[in-house]
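ping. complex inputs:
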Amino acid sequence: MSNSYDDFWGSDSDDNSTFKANEESIEIRKLRARHSKRGYLDGLTYSKEENLQAGFNTSFPEGCDLGLKVGLILGTLQFLAAYYGPKDEKLRNDFSTAQKELKINSILSKTNFDENFDLIGDKHPIIDKWEKKLKDYQGKYF
Amino acid sequence: MDLDELLGLEEQYYKEGYEEGKRENLKKNFLEGKQYGLQVGFQRCVLLGQMKGICDVMESQKFGSSIQKTLDVIRNLISEVPLDNKDESVAIYEKNAVKLKNKFRLLLLALSKQHKSEKFQNIVRFTFEMVDDLSRSVSGELQGYVDDPNAENGVQKNQLDMW
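pong. complex structure:
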């Protein structure tokens, strides 16, 4: 049986020295709890800002990339709808649906990201769907 | 155990806790920061993407050399914006965003004049405000933090300022 186990539970022998050792061990545990908690709280506070900023800078380019793609789809559809919409009902409807489906809350929905806020898979499923639709319209009108 | 030993232990336990606290914070706040980064990056770039998309369509429709010239300037201004959050990148973004909005207004105005006598009346009514409104509705307002919403001059601090 290890010493630390004996320190806590006491060994089979009940002589005076073991009793003293147990008492000291309990005090040390208290000491450890008190000081490591104080250190823990200081560590939490100190690194908060630094870590927030590091996370922000890491994902910012990906946010930009998603925003650019969404904007490109919507801008193209918006102008095509203004230009050809009066004669193209499907285009008008698609533009209307795209505005709902490409909103920030659906694009950045947790279902599209893993627990580390990295995109699941290579492509964003909603953006991928609309990029394909966009290609059809580009083929038709460009 | 003498006093020196005791103080040494206190320091050791404090350091252990401190490192653990830092590690704990690292993960939690790093992920929180990532969420904000995705959001603000997205919001910052939707309008740029929209402008790019509209340029693509206009270019394909061959509206003439003067429109094409403005399109080239706009494309250039968009491509100059770095997609990261370094201080110098943010400064370029802010400078170019103002120029882009002005250029885009002029572009749509020119296009509207060109189409006045033609059959595409919707183009006459296509304004920069429509583009801007769509961008706002898709990406949400940037104001995530308000100093004093009742201040007369609208002293508001938007989320970009926080980062």
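Chain B is about 75% helix and 0% strand.
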